[in-house]
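PROTEIN DATA CARD
Card holder: alpha-L-fucosidase
Chain length: 754
Origin: Maribacter ulvicola
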Amino acid sequence: MTKPIVKSLKLITSLIVILLLVASCNKKSKSILRLKTNSTLEIDEDDSRDSVLLKATHVVPTENQMTALEDEFIAFVHFGPNTFTELEWGNGMEDPAVFKLENLDTDQWCRSMKEAGMKKVIITAKHHDGFVLWQSRYTKHGIMSSPFKNGEGDVLKELSLSCKKYGIKLGVYLSPADLYQIENEKGLYGNLSEYSMRTIPRPVEGRPFKNKTTFEFKVDDYNEYFLNQLFELLTEYGPIDEVWFDGAHPKRKGGQQYKYRDWKKLITALAPNAVIFGKEGIRWCGNEGGATRDTEWNVVPYKEDPRTLNLYADITAEDVGSIDKLMKGNFLHYQPAEINTSIREGWFYRNDTEQKVRNADDVFDIYERSVGGNSIFLLNIPPNREGKFSEQEVAVLKETGKRINETYGANLVIGASESELLDDDKDTYVVLTDSKLELEFELPKETKVNRFVVQEDIKRHGERIAKHALDAYVDGKWQEMITSTNIGYKRILRFPEITTSKLRLRILEYRDTPVIQHVSAHYYKSRPPVLKIERAKDGKVSIVPGKTDFSWNLHGENAFKNLNNGIKIVYTTNGKEPNKDSEEYVKPFQFTDGVVKAAAILNGELGSVSDYKFGILKNTWKVLDVDSELNEHKRSLLIDENNDTFWQTQTHKKEGHFVSIDFGELHAINAFKYTPPTSISNGMIQKGTIYSSKDGLKWEKIENFEFGNLINDPTPRMHEFKSTVTTRYVKLVSKEIAGSNTTAAIAELDFYKN
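Structure generated from the sequence above:
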């Protein structure tokens, strides 16, 4: 059959599909589809750039993906032995007795989530250490062997009941990696067992399942274990709305393979509403810091059919779904991004003193960038050792929810001719044409506006708009406020405050006929900015506004200055919270060591408190020796009070990199902080030893230290000594570099007094 004949048949088929679609549509939702939609479409060999773009606009989310996008703001809860050992990654051989939970308040978790506007929570039912938080039939390494409720406790059960009480959806994280099953002598992970047909769930005497469904899979021991535990989670704590997988592997053994296609069959059968993260359902955004792409297309290319893959590579590039990227694929697949980060430094709770907590400004900013950037926002809130969210997190969540409600609770647009765009009916939309690519909207009167929300009808018509602009009518003429790229599920446009009575949306570029589902205009009340506290090497402390919602320049104007004139900064150095009567910051001041707290005051309102604990002043420090250094990353950079510069070794070795420092005088130290570089990931010191000396020649070991998950979470790490050490000289020696790398790097070292 020749290509022209094939193309003719395709054209005839497409026309028939179009006629059927049009015939089936009612007046309320007239369709302009030119192809049959699907969540995955194949690219043919003879497809041109234009035909690939056309296909991309007919790739739509599944029902579960659409629901996940509409959930928008969801919670992650990391809880387990690491909460009590203060490690990011356990080793799998922790005694369950370390899980010294005495109280658990999952109602408090869900109340806080509800106040923040979150719709779903995902809990680490099993992290990499293999410790389980529910009463599993298939292991004793978990809560059943802990002191909590004499081994009768069940975190999953209590959380599921709280979720139902507060209307929060429940999701589960079940780590494929399992250090307990790796390290345990009789562990199942990588034990080289044969694959054979096995019944899931495996019956356990005295523990029958209410759900009598069974499955037959050809699997090995570990995959059977994993499927049995999935069955428990999906049938006894549901309904489950998300199953979360990641690709983290602290350690491998025996060439263990995961039978994900079998896992998916189980999930699809037992939790039909669940979206699967880390696979074809939802993808990782590519970082754990809450960073977002300016342009986030959710239609992405695959070389192989993603519906049949067993392994899924992380998609971390800045350009994900441009036409150039799409042309390199064989399949187009709808796969929304989930922006995941933690409200604390690290995923697990460590302490309330050194472990920083994001403030409401930061969380609200990420919310607007992620939810308003065609993504899902997943924020981790780790419970403390009391089984509750700490007061700091609760306050931030409450304030974030308040800002979301105050800003987006009401639509300032009224009386538009396209009323379908203003109603709450998700099944109405407006189709634009080449002759009408502009929409005007009236406000009830001259009104302050600095937010505009646009949503495409992706449920039926996919992602189409590639560039758009918003204008405001000011002083009798239209002024362009902002331009942006794609829209997708939702785009939140943020711009300097303007007083206007009319707004205009212009579509500048599109892949196919634009179809808009909803628009709204809003006003965000400017708050006092977050402050950044820094100290120079000479001991002078400066307090300046840090990153804010409006930190970019627009049309030559500095939005931050426009919105925040008249700021007053107050601060304390005695550990107390600053108030309106505290000392005013006028210029940099001398400060040796301790905690500086500061807040900005705008229009009489006291903003979020920022604080920073400074170590020993470095003006007399000298780096005695290092094992090696690169010319561009010399030793002096590790004590220059600048986290953007760093020392890096020239030599390569697995351990034994070192740096020794002379304080210039004796100090009684009780802790040190290691700040890793953030511009590279190949020199982070994961394990090491700290030594002290009175003369710089004879060294005595203080103690070992260990920091986990540095590559994914390159935040400063604090290590407190068991006892205070008086010394003039210190030495740090590496034992292990993260990611099995062989060079060492330090952005900054700090040591702290009592």
